């Protein structure tokens, strides 16, 4: 079945029936969070909200993914391996051009309400990396696969290891 991208209603229904469209999910997710004026805009937000809820249920059930509804993204993140196992805290802030591989956790210690990480621009997070606590990851940072990051990371650094350590800094 070919997807009709010109008519948003038909495209919406085809996405529900045929497949999950992550890019449209991110756009609708941002629009649902935005304030609205008027009855038509409110009705469209309800339709978008249904789509977002469906996508969230699909993610949780089939992919083991949980993206917190309050998480803020400066731009649509690059997910080379899809949404498989990605956990993002609702208070997390992610900058532009973030590349997030599978099985990544951006979480908190559970101590405070705003205990989530802040990710800078142009950050690559390798498969299985865990970024935990109220820390800041700088711009142009590469985090290796399986790294557990619990401390701030400066700009232009590469971080690796089970107890993450900086190996290069430009």
Description:
This protein has two domains: 8-63, no CATH class; 67-170, 3 Solenoid (UDP N-Acetylglucosamine Acyltransferase, domain 1). The model is unreliable at 1-5 (pLDDT under 50). The chain has three helices and 14 strands. The chain has a five-stranded parallel beta sheet. Strands 5-8-11-13-14 form a five-stranded mixed beta sheet, with no helix packed on it. A four-stranded parallel beta sheet has the order 2-4-7-10, with no helix packed on it. The radius of gyration is 17 Å and the shape is elongated. α2 crosses α3 (39-63). It is an alpha/beta fold. It has helices spanning 8-17, 22-33, 39-63, and strands at 66-67, 72-73, 87-88, 93-94, 99-100, 105-107, 118-119, 124-125, 130-132, 136-137, 142-143, 148-149, 157-160, 165-169.
